[in-house]
């Protein structure tokens, strides 16, 4: 993907190395264990989109597995000042459309079960909890949900009906608050 014009003067495009300082800032505000600059640099070789409205306000990182049949979403975050306005929805909808055009059949991700807002967010798009994974630390452990979404057959990009695989999305408002 090169550039995609989203609603309300938002643009979604592939990330570049120049974007990484701002992406790191958002990551540090969004996760208890932020990624390192090195990890983000490597992610530039994968699917890495940023969404901007004057400045970058969110990003998504994903990688292609199983000879292109499956995509794993590794990270999605929106700057705290811009949450609850449909920014992640624009980012995920555009990414899902892109995956479908690339003939991807299924999208998977792992999300901490304690991250209720993220689980709710993914469920809105039709992701379902399929499995559990336990990550054991020094003193404690975290339970991660493995969530999965099957994509529809790829069809004409411009007429791609998102509601075909997720009826709820048809009811979303794309109005951004503020
Ligand atoms: C999860 C996250 C990406 C959502 O970003 P956002 O831009 O605020 O989300 P949107 O405004 O696009 O919300 C889209 C839908 O997701 C759901 N959602 C988003 N945040 C939610 C929350 N805190 N609680 C419940 N549902 C929520 C809503 O149902 C919303 O639909 P609605 O418009 O009908 O209310 C954002 O909260 C974030 O960056 N969190 C920290 C990082 C993180 O946890 N990432 C996910 C794990 S990788």
Gist of the model:
With 178 residues, the chain is an alpha+beta fold.
Query: Which CATH class?
Result: Alpha Beta
Please name the CATH topology: Aminopeptidase
Q: Would you identify the regions where 5 or more consecutive residues have pLDDT less than 50?
A: 157-178
In terms of structural class, how would the helical and strand content be classed?
Answer: alpha+beta
- Got a strand count? 8
| Rg calc | 16 Å
- How many domains make up the coordinates? 1
What is the spatial order of strands in the main beta sheet? 1-2-3-4-5-6-8-7
So how many helices?
4
Q: What's the overall average pLDDT, rounded?
A: 85
Q: Major beta sheet, specifics?
A: 8 strands, mixed
Overall helicity: 10-25%
- Small ligands present: coenzyme A
* Architecture (CATH level 2) name: 3-Layer(aba) Sandwich
As a percent range, the share of strand residues is 25-35%
CATH superfamily name?
Gcn5-related N-acetyltransferase (GNAT)
Describe the structure.
With 178 residues, the protein is α+β, with helices and mostly antiparallel strands. It has a single domain (3-171), classed as Gcn5-related N-acetyltransferase (GNAT) (Aminopeptidase), CATH 3.40.630. Helix content is 24%, strand content 35%. It is built from 4 helices and 8 strands; from the N terminus they run E-E-H-H-E-E-E-H-E-H-E-E. The protein has helices at 20-30, 37-43, 87-101, 116-124, and strands at 3-6, 10-14, 47-53, 55-65, 70-78, 106-112, 128-136, 141-150. An 8-stranded mixed beta sheet has the order 1-2-3-4-5-6-8-7. The structure holds coenzyme A. Coenzyme A (COA) binds at residues 30-31, 75-78, 83-89, 111, 115, 117-118, 120-121, 124, 172.
């Amino acid at each position: 993907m090169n550039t995609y014009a989203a609603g309300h003067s938002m643009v979604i495009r592939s990330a570049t190395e120049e974007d990484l300082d701002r992406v790191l800032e958002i990551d540090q505000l969004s996760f208890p264990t932020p990624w390192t600059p090195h990890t983000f640099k490597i992610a530039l070789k994968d699917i890495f989109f940023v969404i901007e409205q004057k400045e970058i306000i969110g990003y998504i990182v994903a990688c292609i597995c199983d000879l292109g049949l499956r995509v794993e979403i590794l990270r999605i975050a929106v700057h705290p000042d811009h949450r609850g306005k449909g920014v992640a929805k624009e980012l995920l909808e555009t990414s899902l459309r892109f995956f479908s055009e690339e003939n991807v059949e299924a999208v998977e991700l792992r999300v901490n079960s304690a991250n209720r807002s993220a689980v709710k967010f993914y469920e809105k798009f039709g992701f379902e909890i399929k499995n559990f994974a336990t990550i054991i630390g020094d003193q404690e452990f975290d339970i991660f949900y493995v969530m999965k979404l099957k994509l529809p057959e790829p069809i004409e990009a411009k007429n791609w009906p998102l509601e075909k695989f997720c009826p709820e999305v048809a009811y979303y408002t794309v109005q951004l608050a503020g």
